[in-house]
């Protein structure tokens, strides 16, 4: 039996000797590598916080003391130490452990949002709440990476925490010098400067003398840290920035020396006010493949293959490169995600025209507004879910000024194993709210290129190009045009259903049409290409059909389906509109296919639901007593459009 198998909760850690803790750390790393390389997930960040997490759980009394992990991608060790070893193999699988803290999983988990830079604000509120409720002995611990510390919210929190002098709040800055890529910006430089202060020399000495003896690490770590040290010419006054804010600063300390971290944590705990503890760790520590990975220290496995050939991200990246060569005014912005968003090639070709702003989406958007005001055309490449926090900047700073900024939203729609906070199911609705915004949703690789080019040609307002995670499917050419939209399939005589499929859902729509045709239902399949503004050619087309079905990979509320229904209502078209999208809920993790199936968005499920809807529109003939859901009683009578059908009472309300 391993030591780790004996740990059922933090209490079990507290009786271990220092030698046992070293052994335990090794066992944890083995489990992390073995499991995460199979399940996928965040590897480098977790390997880097093994000793730190052990020390936190030995010094504090979770869940009475509260531990908030910023972003939460580095909480696997915490999961292993809080009774979840047996289920760890189910990580990120449907029904299994989530890839972030989860309140449903454990009383030790507090924050599960996974959007970065929030931990200090949660911790500020928690510490104030405990004080006000008369529980002043409870301590709140926030663990925040140097990457997450580049987010504006973290600084808003620091400003407030500094004023809350008796908050029992410990902020552990887990400084590994990296977010996905090396952390950039003034703060990163400041942290690097702190690494060269005299106290840091002790860390360095320690690392120099002890690490070469440690298995798997040694020279590379020393070399890296020493390299950083030598690279800094100006030895600024360390920690001054934090202390000027009124925050007690402790550090820097070696985050892989468990005993040293414990000592610092005990001191911080006993201080009785907010303390910032600066811990230096190495991302991927103890696993050479991660430590030596030049791209991102195996931040996530599988790695930046997210922008591998054949993916949507890569298709976008290729086209950006081509556009960049033609258009010197096109610049790119990433919020700490150069590789995952597919911008690496653009950055290599045009290093002066790409801005990595750190994990700072709000700044990304308003600085894009500034770039556009200055005569450039910025492309903000961002994961769909992270644009949420920059909604006001998109609305007021870009939209109100009608600025030519193109938002490229990767991971739009269901993303899969990262779960509720990562599904990109909000942008299709939020962007509909922005006056003057134009939204494109390519169905295949060729359309990514076409629509991106059209988007960067727009000079009088913002544009969005949204596409999902994963590989692009086959290319499908239009058989006709309907206004600016592509008709992918026309029915024979019967025009029963006008099926409008957004982005790759247009291809799903083709599959649906194939199935419905088998049941005698005539389907026109349209890819709108642009989901805002809604193409008015849909008005006439709707009148020529008995039912309009809109399928989109976005929350059902306020998305394209609702926009189509509104357009038709406004034009007194009474043909019923059914909108098929994601339920407006926080959807659990699973593969993209599993989540789509649960949402009823597979071709088979859609075919059934549309058949039922058509059947409900069909007056029962005396001969036909079949159930309305029966595919044997479909569209019936006539290819004629049935605006008149509208008055047929519905057995149940249209969804
Ligand atoms: C608002 C937001 N933007 C982007 C991300 C994607 N993301 C996840 S982890 C990460 C890097 C975090 O770096 P750091 O805080 O230094 O932690 P480390 O991985 O180095 O331990 C990024 C950019 C996110 N989770 N939230």
Report the CATH topology name of the largest domain. Answer: Rossmann fold
Spatially, the strands of the biggest sheet line up as 7-6-8-9-11-10-16
- Cofactors, ions and other ligands in the entry: thiamine diphosphate
Which strand-content bin applies to the residues?
5-15%
- In CATH terms, what is the architecture of the largest domain? 3-Layer(aba) Sandwich
What is the topological layout?
Blueprint: H1 10-13, H2 18-39, H3 44-47, H4 50-59, E1 66-69, H5 76-81, H6 119-132, E2 140-145, H7 152-163, E3 169-175, H8 186-194, H9 198-210, H10 219-231, H11 240-244, E4 248-254, H12 258-271, E5 275-280, H13 288-291, H14 312-326, E6 330-334, H15 344-349, E7 354-356, H16 361-373, E8 377-383, H17 384-387, H18 391-399, E9 406-410, H19 427-430, E10 438-440, H20 445-457, E11 463-466, E12 480-482, E13 485-489, E14 497-501, H21 505-518, E15 523-527, E16 530-532, H22 537-543, E17 547-555, H23 560-570, E18 577-582, H24 592-598, H25 603-616
Parallel strand pairs: 1-2, 2-3, 3-5, 4-5, 6-7, 6-8, 8-9, 9-11, 10-11, 14-15, 14-17, 17-18
Antiparallel strand pairs: 10-16, 12-13, 13-15
Helix pairs in contact: 4-12, 6-7, 14-20, 16-18, 21-25
Residues 45, 48, 71, 73-74, 114-116, 145-148, 174, 176, 178-180, 183, 283, 299, 335-337, 359, 361, 386 line the site of thiamine diphosphate.
């Amino acid at each position: 039996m391993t030591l780790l198998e004996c740990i059922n909760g933090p209490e079990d850690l507290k009786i271990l000797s220092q030698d046992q803790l070293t052994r335990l750390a090794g066992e944890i790393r083995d489990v992390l590598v073995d499991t995460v390389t199979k399940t996928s997930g965040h590897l480098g960040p977790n390997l880097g916080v093994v000793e730190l997490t052990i020390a936190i759980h030995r010094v504090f009394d979770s869940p009475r003391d509260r531990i908030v992990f910023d972003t939460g991608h580095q909480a696997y060790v915490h999961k292993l130490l809080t009774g979840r070893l047996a289920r760890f193999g189910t990580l990120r699988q449907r029904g299994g452990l989530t890839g972030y803290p989860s309140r449903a999983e454990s009383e030790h988990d507090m924050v599960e949002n996974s959007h970065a830079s929030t931990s200090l604000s949660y911790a500020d509120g928690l510490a104030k709440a405990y004080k006000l409720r008369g529980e002043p002995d409870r301590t709140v611990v926030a663990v925040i990476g140097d990457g997450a510390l580049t987010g504006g919210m973290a600084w808003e929190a620091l400003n407030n925490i500094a004023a809350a002098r008796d908050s029992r709040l410990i902020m552990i800055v887990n400084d590994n010098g990296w977010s996905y890529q090396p952390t950039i910006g003034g703060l990163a430089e400041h942290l690097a400067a702190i690494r060269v202060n005299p106290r840091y020399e002790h860390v360095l000495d320690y690392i120099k003398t002890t690490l070469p003896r440690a298995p798997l690490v040694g020279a590379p770590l020393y070399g890296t840290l020493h390299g950083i040290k030598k690279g800094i010419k100006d030895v600024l006054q360390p920690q001054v920035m934090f202390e000027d804010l009124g925050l007690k600063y402790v550090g820097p300390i070696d985050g892989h020396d468990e005993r040293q971290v414990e000592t610092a944590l005990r001191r911080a705990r006993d201080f009785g006010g907010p303390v910032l503890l600066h811990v230096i760790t190495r991302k991927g520590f103890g696993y050479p493949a991660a430590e030596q990975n030049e791209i991102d220290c195996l931040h996530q496995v599988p790695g930046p293959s997210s922008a591998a050939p054949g993916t949507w991200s890569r298709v976008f990246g290729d086209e950006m490169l081509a556009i960049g060569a033609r258009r010197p005014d096109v610049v790119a912005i990433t919020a700490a995600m150069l590789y995952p968003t597919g911008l690496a090639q653009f950055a290599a070709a045009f290093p002066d025209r790409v801005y990595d702003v750190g994990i700072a989406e709000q700044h990304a958007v308003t600085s894009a507004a500034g770039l556009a005001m200055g005569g450039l055309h910025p492309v903000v490449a961002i994961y769909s879910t992270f644009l949420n926090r920059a909604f006001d900047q998109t609305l007021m700073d870009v939209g109100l000024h009608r600025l030519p900024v193109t938002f490229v939203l990767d991971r739009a729609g269901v993303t899969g194993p990262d779960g509720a906070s990562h599904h990109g199911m909000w942008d299709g609705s939020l962007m509909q709210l922005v006056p003057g915004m134009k939204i494109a949703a390519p169905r295949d690789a060729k359309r990514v290129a076409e629509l991106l080019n059209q988007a960067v040609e727009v000079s009088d307002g913002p544009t969005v190009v949204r596409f999902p995670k994963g590989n692009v499917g086959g290319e499908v050419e239009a058989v006709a045009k309907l206004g600016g939209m592509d008709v992918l399939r026309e029915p024979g005589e019967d025009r029963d259903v006008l099926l409008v499929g957004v982005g790759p859902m247009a291809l799903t729509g083709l599959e649906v049409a194939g199935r419905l045709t088998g049941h005698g239902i005539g389907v026109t399949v349209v890819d709108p290409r642009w989901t805002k503004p809604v193409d008015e050619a849909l008005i006439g087309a709707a009148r020529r059909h008995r039912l309009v079905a809109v399928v989109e990979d976005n929350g059902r509320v306020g998305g394209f389906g609702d926009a189509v229904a509104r357009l038709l209502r406004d034009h007194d078209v009474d043909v019923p509109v059914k909108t098929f999208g994601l339920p407006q809920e926080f959807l659990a993790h699973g593969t993209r296919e599993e989540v789509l199936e649960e949402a009823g968005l597979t071709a088979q499920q859609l075919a059934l639901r549309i058949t039922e809807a058509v059947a409900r529109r069909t007056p029962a003939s005396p001969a036909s007593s079949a159930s309305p859901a029966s595919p044997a009683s479909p569209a019936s009578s006539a290819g004629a459009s049935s605006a008149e059908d509208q008055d047929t009472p519905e057995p149940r309300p249209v969804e």
